[in-house]
TrEMBL record, chains A, B:
ATP binds at G122, D123, R148, S217. Its EC number is 2.7.4.16. It comes from Nocardia ignorata. Mg(2+) 5 binds at D218. The gene is thiL. This is Thiamine-monophosphate kinase. It catalyses: thiamine phosphate + ATP = thiamine diphosphate + ADP. Reaction mechanism of ThiL seems to utilize a direct, inline transfer of the gamma-phosphate of ATP to TMP rather than a phosphorylated enzyme intermediate. The keyword Nuclease does not apply. Mg(2+) 3 binds at D30, D75, D215.
Length: 325, 325
């Protein structure tokens, strides 16, 4: 990369890309210009750091690019918005192979288009460690934002998307299990490239509207805790609604606890929301609990033991596993 | 920082802040929500890396925060837009003192408000090196974007803001000169906190409209080179219009070449644009050259010798000085 230089590499990354309709002016000027037909735009930003959020020996560059976009797109969708575009900043060591940067860019483009947008611009700088910063934009289409703060006592808590599989993949990779074993393929794929079920939120706009919505990035109990706190309510989760026999089978192979992955594993970027019991749950959503008076999150009425999710700088809660995240 | 944890530190950074009018929903949910009254928004993103774009032994945390916001705000203003808001992602080593993070946040807020916006959201993660990623938003107020590609043969090239002072400050710091010498105070301040002349662009909206506009971030000749290439024209700069006796005095103290700082020094975030000769230059702008047919940038008709600007991964062009930027 040092040989090619910043400007030549940026040209190469951007060559032949087709911008989404919302991107009125793409890369190449001081700034990009995006449409905001709603007169507002949703925006979320996340930074991913090599060795903590991804590893080049565990994921391909394209996987890493997809994951970086997916987790930001999930945040935008979790507000009830359709992704429209992304800007990215990339810091790389000077000896980073050009193919790594190109692979990350390819993965970013693939996921950006899958989510409904494109990469409207970016920055490329020299750093000691590979660092990816993504900012995602979305359009609410005239609807209200779906925040974490609207849950009401009596609401049904429901989930769309997988839980615990990313944590299972992390356990496979960090535990030294045989990554070529087909039994681990789905867990590994889930960890490398989360698949937020964008359509299960976007395509139910205007009907089946939840009172509150968020994505599962820190872990189900942690994210429900944020939602409960923001809404001033308590949430009780039904453990029986969360069982996953296929995940149990993976856990048995690793002598691990699938329940812990489901309750505390982050990064699947499933969506979790709360609906009035008078509203039918949208297709693709499964009930997992109820909103009650009070505060905090319980599982079958009891405070959960063990880790409840991920927090930077502290590691994974009470279990304090130092696994690379 | 490791002791306090991510969520507590984010709460502390956000406490007592007042969001700008354009920020409809600030930090605390999956994403922020900003107004885009124009139905479009301008967006720019930049990453700053410790040891390359700033040093904690050369600048205060607040200076670093201000600089990070200023350079992104300058990109938005260079499109002809008014800054409305910013999102920031911060990667820090676990042993970063909380006061450093708070200082960066304070500086960011100070400059964000100065530019007309506020910090609408962000991310805080663990990294080995201090890395700051800023994304800035702006509103065009119904006007067309001022790109780099609109310069026309015969246009007057004009500048608003200082040139070369940030490079002078860098020379003071990297050369081991006496930083307490009052003769260096302005250069040091310019390097630590660039002062893009936002008002000289924003307040002339609708009159004195340039054909092309950019900000000086890589160096005057380099940025004029980008503008000339995008517009398909050549630019000739008049050296006599760029002299700065005060900067000459600083250069003399360091046995350096003020002309080189002015032509090739980046990071002042002055603005440079081109106007039809039939349009009066706005207040605060000074003519420095002309747009001609052809390609490339000349100084008094000749190709400049020496470095012409900054490019990541390669260092400062032909002189290849490894100075920390």
């Amino acid at each position: 990369m040092r040989e090619l230089g910043e400007f030549a590499l940026i040209d190469r990354i951007n060559a032949g890309r087709e911008q989404a309709a919302h991107v009125l002016l793409g890369p190449g000027d001081d700034a990009a210009l995006l449409a905001a037909p709603d007169g507002r735009f949703v925006v979320s930003t996340d930074m991913l750091v090599e060795g903590r959020h991804f590893r080049l020996d565990w994921s391909t560059p394209a996987d890493i690019g997809r994951k970086a976009i997916a987790q930001n797109a999930a945040d935008v969708v979790a507000m009830g918005a359709r992704p429209t575009g992304f800007v990215v900043a990339l810091g790389c060591p000077g000896d980073t192979p050009v193919r790594v940067v190109e692979g990350i860019a390819d993965g970013m483009w693939l996921e950006a288009v899958r989510a409904g947008g494109s990469i409207a611009g970016g920055d490329l700088v020299h750093s000691e460690q590979l660092v990816i910063s993504v900012t995602a934009f979305g359009d609410l289409g005239g609807q209200g934002a779906l925040t974490r703060s609207g849950a009401v006592e009596g609401d049904i808590v429901a989930v769309a998307g997988e839980l615990g599989w990313s944590a299972a993949g992390l356990a496979v990779l960090s535990g030294g299990a045989d990554v070529s074993d087909p039994a681990f393929a789905h867990a590994l794929a889930a960890h490398r490239v989360p698949q937020p079920p964008y359509a299960e939120v976007i395509d139910v706009f205007g009907v089946h509207i939840p009172n509150a919505l968020t994505d599962v990035s820190d872990g189900l109990l942690a994210d429900l805790g944020h939602l409960a706190a923001a809404s001033g309510v308590a949430i009780d989760v039904h453990a029986a609604a969360l069982t996953d026999p296929e995940l149990d089978a993976v856990a048995a192979r690793l002598e691990a606890d699938a329940g812990q992955w489901i309750l505390a594993g982050g990064e699947d970027h499933a969506f979790v929301g709360t609906w009035s019991p008078a509203t039918a749950l949208p297709p693709g959503w499964r009930p997992i609990g109820v909103v009650t008076a009070g505060s905090g999150v319980t599982v079958d009425g009891a405070r959960p033991a063990g880790a409840t999710g991920w927090e930077s700088f502290r590691g994974a809660g009470a279990t304090a596993e130092p696994g690379e995240r």
